[in-house]
Amino acid sequence: MPTTAAPPLALTSLRRLARQRSVRITAAVWLAANVVVLLVAGEALPFGWPGVPGSTVDHVVNTNIGMLGIFGLMAVTCLLTRHRVRPDLADRAPDLATTRRETLLLLAYGALGLVVGFVLARLFGWHPFGLHLAGSIFGTHDHVGPVEAMTWAGYNVVVYAVLPLAYFRRKYSAEQLNLVSSDRRGDARVIVVVLLIESAVQFATLTTAFGQLTTGQYLVGLPLTFVLYLAGAVLPAMIFVYCILVPRFLKLTGSTATTVILGGITYTVLHLWDAWTVLTSPANWLLSIIFLFFTYFGPGMMKTVLTVRTGNAWTHVWAYHAVAPHTLIDAPHVVEIFRVR
């Protein structure tokens, strides 16, 4: 009797992924959000995005193309790590009861950090402190001064990185917190390949620092941007989400796909106070929340995939955060803030 060839492993994995409830719910919500934007928004979105102009339809199309690109990067990451011994991140979390308690307390702490960041910043007449400095990526017209920028970076690195790490490092090893590599050569290969692909896509599709600054501004602005965003955005996300929460998400759910989705949601919520959001009406509230997820959910998932596949939170820092996008996109903004000539 002739035998039927087994389907390729990749196809089998996709089918298994599509059967998971969390994946189906996420896909349905994503599709519904697209429909809502097209029904609620006018011809143009209400956001001031000089860095990424376009109509509502343009932004919806670009959002979905961008998500397909992220899925492509996830596939590349899985391909690069397919022969590696998969780290058991769930085993790095404590027992189930402790994991549940720590996760709830961490999420409450993160919410408190956002509230205090809002109140503190508004007391000084600044933009509320979220994971992005006002004017990041989209090039909003809002003015940011040097003191605000440095306070934003200092607040975030202390609240989301220094304090959580100081507490959890007393109880858990560097390996349990995804701070060390079990395969340095393999991690380096992932970093180089993903960084090159992401940088090439960014140069092809987005406005970057190159061509906008003088030689002197390059020499000062690029390292200044790197350090500022490393403190204000990169390390806070790394420690709070990818070092501490991701192993606990995996322990609680038992599902890599659900963990990746939760990582994307958490990363998105930490950007709640982005300066471009418009909260002047229920419709604008809804559009702002949707586009927060359109903007950050995919990158948050990608960072989670890099962490889960390598067991090393530093991998996402160098491959998909510290250099691309922030240093490449936001250098002109930082040059303006600090009046670099």
UniProtKB/TrEMBL annotation:
Coiled-coil positions are none
Keywords in UniProt for this one? Membrane, Transmembrane, Transmembrane helix
- The question of whether Transmembrane helix is a record keyword is answered with yes
Positions of transmembrane segments: 25-45, 65-83, 104-129, 149-168, 188-206, 226-245, 252-273, 285-302
Q: What is the name attached to this protein's record?
A: Uncharacterized protein
